[in-house]
Amino acid sequence: MRRTLPLALAALAAACFSVTAVVAQDAKKGKCAVAGKEIEITDKTPSVMVNNEKLYFCCQNCPKAFAADVAKFVKTAGKCPVNKGADATVDAANRAIVNNNVYFFCCPGCPDTLKENPAKFVRELKDPVSGKSFTPKADSPRAEVKGQIYLFESPTTKAEFQKDNAKYVWAYK
Q1: Rounded CA separation 147/112 (Å)
Q2: What is the pLDDT of residues 70-107, one digit of tens each?
Q3: How far is it, in rounded angstroms, from Cα 114 to Cα 158?
Q4: Which of 2, 69, 141, 145 has a CA between 20 and 30 Å from the CA of residue 129?
Q5: Residue 8 is inside which H or E element, if any?
């Protein structure tokens, strides 16, 4: 009996660990922001941030549809990233695009404030070329295309972006 109890406890602990390991490997579930269908979320799932809330897409075509009519897919904008206590409004005239992420604001002065120094208001971005996440800094390499701001993790990815930025820029309407 004394030997069977420790063995039984060890077997139970191993079983619990293996169940936990399986659960941890399962993908997260979500809904495509455009198509509305259920999807598995992985690190390869296309996504965009809207005022620091991540929206996911089921395919590579959905981000284009999203960019063409953001107001159709975003009903509430959350809090203004500049004036953090204020509610933002979904308004194309009152927004900024940084690395294809959408930031809505509470008033007309806030978009210019964010555009002047995005690093002050945005904690993390995905480099549009490498796809790697990075923390933007005031001196991060920068480009502007069609009024949209792009920050890069390095001068190398900025140079690659500048060769053919159409690969990386979403056409927001």
Answers
A1: 11
A2: 999 998 889 999 998 899 999 999 999 999 999 999 99
A3: 20
A4: 69
A5: helix 4-25
